[in-house]
Amino acid sequence: MVTCTVIHPNTGIGFELAAQLLAKGNYHVLLACRSPDKGYAALQRLQSRDLPGTVCFTHLDVTDDASIHAAASQVEKDYGRLDVLVNNAAIGRAQEDDLRKKMRECFDTNATGPAILGYAFEELLRKSDYPLKRIVNVSSGAGSIGRMFDPNRKAVTHYGRTIHYQASKAALSMVTAQQALDFAPHGVKVLCWNPGFTVSELGPFNKVEHGAKPTEEAVRPLVEIIEGGRDGEAGVFLSEDGKSYPW
Ligand SMILES: NC(=O)c1ccc[n+]([C@@H]2O[C@H](COP(=O)([O-])OP(=O)(O)OC[C@H]3O[C@@H](n4cnc5c(N)ncnc54)[C@H](OP(=O)(O)O)[C@@H]3O)[C@@H](O)[C@H]2O)c1
Question: Which family is it part of (predicted)?
């Protein structure tokens, strides 16, 4: 069994990723959620599908170091290693009106959390002998600085100003690049991927009527990345359509 931790799989892309991995039969998926109620509800929904893989819940809040280290200790105790880590949690709409607070909130969840998680699980990933061991950071095209200056880019205006989200995802690119270099000696790949506009709870416009694609469609390329299908494209920001974005 490949032991895979999916961070925040209770809704949207994370939930569908857990379902698609479980359907394959060779994954043991750890649902790492901050809310035990939502986590156990997701666990029940997945178990009711009678998929061949195995699944369990672990508590983890990406903004809380104690919970990150407790989750890593639990994984160490239960499995002695980790094969795949998917950093999926993010917020698009910070609760705060004040920009400084919004920036803090988004950076804490979207960039600092994955950075701390990567290092917290580094030793467990190092211990894995799975040949495709890796971290996949789910990012966003909104964090691509190169795209900002592309005259053909369609600017997303319906959310208003989202500099807090964009800047936090740009920071996630640097977290990915630094950890890709740091973990390479352990044989651990660190990749960054944008799912594209998808139905989820991320914001009020993530709905079919606004052009968002279904999660089933969005997640298939992520499974391909987890299974090494795009390993030839080292050091790029992978996009949803099989191509890449400028960093
Ligand atoms: N959907 C899109 O169009 C789109 C496009 C580009 C990139 N993405 C990226 O895809 C990933 C998944 O997002 P999604 O679209 O599936 O959105 P989602 O349905 O809102 O899922 C995001 C998850 O992150 C968790 N989360 C929120 N705040 C958190 C915090 N402070 N600490 C820990 N976890 C927290 C949420 O848990 P709770 O339920 O407990 O709040 C939720 O399960 C994100 O990284 C997002 O940036 C999505």
Answer: Belongs to the short-chain dehydrogenases/reductases (SDR) family.
